[in-house]
Each structure stands twice: as structure tokens, then as C-alpha cells.
Amino acid sequence: MTTLTVKDLLPEDGTKGTLVGRVWLPQVNGPAVVAVRGDGVFDVTARFPTVSALCEEDDPAKALSSTKGERIGDLDAIVANTAPDGRDPKKPWLLAPVDLQTLKAAGVTFAISMLERVIEERAKGNPASAEAIRKEVTRLIGDDLSKLKPGSDQAMHLKQVLIDQNAWSQYLEVGIGPDAEVFTKAPTMSSVGTGMDAGLHPKSTWNNPEPELVLFVSSRGEIVGGALGNDVNLRDFEGRSALLLSKAKDNNASCSIGPLLRLFDDTFTLDDARKLDISLNVKGTDGFVLDGHSSISKISRDPTDLVAQTIGKIHQYPDGFVLFLGTMFAPVKDRDAPGQGFTHKRDDIVTIAAPQLGKLVNRMRTSDECEPWTFGIGALMKNLAQRKLI
Questions:
Q1: Is the whole-model pTM more than 0.85?
Q2: How many CA atoms lie within 13 A of 7 on its CB side?
Q3: Nearest to residue 71, comparing CAs of 44, 53, 31, 98?
Q4: In 154-276, which ranges are E strands?
Q5: Structural domain count of the chain
Q6: 93 and 124 share a domain?
């Protein structure tokens, strides 16, 4: 991992928005909730012990703006010390901007990724079969379902047509049916942030990044801000069986969120998030380069609908949750041989970027090579108590 700079992190408008992060403080052997401002990084943990607590405020952006905090350093130095290679453990480094919130993810919310899920299922996790199946699936259902409203009469008619042609799929069910797929991505507090290694199961031979918008939601169901996410996915595992979803999605360092949480304020709103353009870049040590680009505006289900299907009278989240909105595309560019498609190689650098949210940068390693996750909820509570913050 090359050394990151502020340019590799901040949104295009710099620190004009209300930016929240978490920083590891070696002197207290624990994390701090920080406000990232033009004149530095400020520890606000004395006012907000957790990011979850900040998101529970009636107006999180206003609450943070009115809290001065204690300056702990320049963002440049903290970012430069974040990558695991060459990190000075005596100096602060950046963490994922999420703590007690449950890590949730919505799946099959974009037409193009829905088609790729159908292809994975039919290929039984074999990338060599994917290209021929892709052509067959496109012939049957087309390649543009973006205008099809899930759960509508038109969608239900298409469902029946596909059933009659023996072409139905469980992925089409959640893609165009009334009920969204929402699952738990990873354990609370297991996320990695920008500059860190992201993990792939060592037995996976067909996998890909999933660039997504991640919404931060309070216990009241209010969407308070957003960040970027990489919902790292194992196409071979999930393709063999949907019952392997947990193994395909939940591995050490397989949930990346960052670089910062941008709270909604007059510079960034939910409507801005709905129109967000997100780009993907993958660079390999073999010289391979992959670029992709799409927009949240192409989503099949509105973000508020996905949040409403996640929280309510049938399910509560007392510490709030974050919600990956689903990937906008699945990389299919051939890497090694024609028809083999894309899969990661060791040391790929993945950059997910959006003008309003900055850049989320990770190096890909197998999960057993990534830094082990050791600091969980119990450790956080003990640490905050020792610091007399709770």
C-alpha cells in the first residue's frame, strides 16, 4: 500500500461539509470520535463517546458543529500513518467511521448487478461458464430493467412469464419482487477503513469489489449521513449456493467503510446522495487496470424504502445501523483469459470514489493475511469506562 495523503481522502469540496471519523489514539489504547475540519482533526469523544451516539442526536451535524473538541493533529499525518505497512504504533491512525451500529446490506438493488447474480447462480460459481449464460439471460429478460418498479403489476407479470419459461431465479425475486434483500454484512465493529487491507477468503477463486453508498441510520430510522463502502463479494461461494451468503460476505476485513462519515447538512443532503456518482478503479501489480462508473440514481428501490424495510415495528436497532445500498455493477472485464471475467489478485489496490464523499482505498489480501480483528464491543466499553467517558 502506497502512503495515502489528504488528496486520497477528502471530498472535492474539502472540509466544507460536516465530516466525522474515528482515530486510534495510542496514548489511551483506544479509539476517538473526531471532527475533521480545515484546521485539523478534533477529538470530540468527551461529548460523543461513539459515532452511534452522535448519530442519535436530533441534529447530528449541528451538534458536532457546536462541539469544539480537542485538536489531536493534522489530517495529513494521521492519514499517512494509517496503512499497516510502516505504521508507527506510537502515533494516531484512521479507522472506519462506524462503531456500535449494526452492519446491514441490501442486495440486488440495481438491474445490472441483479443480472450478474442470476448468472452466478446458473454458472454454479464457475467463471468459465458465465459468458455463455450471460448471453442467454440477456436474451430472456433483456439488459435494462432500471425502469421496472419492484413489486408492481408489470414486475409481477414479468415474474410469471419467466416462471413459465423455467427462467425464474431467487435473485429476480428480490430484484423485482415486493420484498428487498437485506442481510447482516458483518459483526458490529469489524469494519476496516480507508488505507487498510481488505480481505478475501483464501479459498475463493472468483471474487470482486462491490462499490456502494453506505447510509448511516439512527435508532429512530432517520438517515443522517453517508459514506462509501466496499461490500467485498465471493462470486464462486455465493454462486454455488445462496446458503453460502454468510461465507461469501462475512470474513475478516471483508467490510470496508470510509473514508469518513459525511453528515447531512446544507452542503450534502439525502437528495444529493440519491444522485451520487460513484467510480471504481482497480490496479493490479500485473499491470491490469479496471475502471467502472455508475450512479445511485439508477437504483431500483429508493433508499428510504430500503431503510423502511430494515427498521420498524418488526425489527429495532437501539444503536442504529449502517446500510449498504447494493452494488451498481459487477466487473466482467476479462483479466487473464477470454471468457474468464474478473477476479482479484493479491495486492490489488481498489479505489472507490465519489465527489461528495472522497475516496475509499484498500489493498486486497486474503483474510488470514489481514490484521486480525481484536477490538470489539466489550473492549470498547471497557476502554471508554477507563477513560471515564461513559
A1: yes
A2: 1
A3: 44
A4: 181-186, 197-200, 207-208, 211-217, 223-231, 233-234, 255-263
A5: 2
A6: no
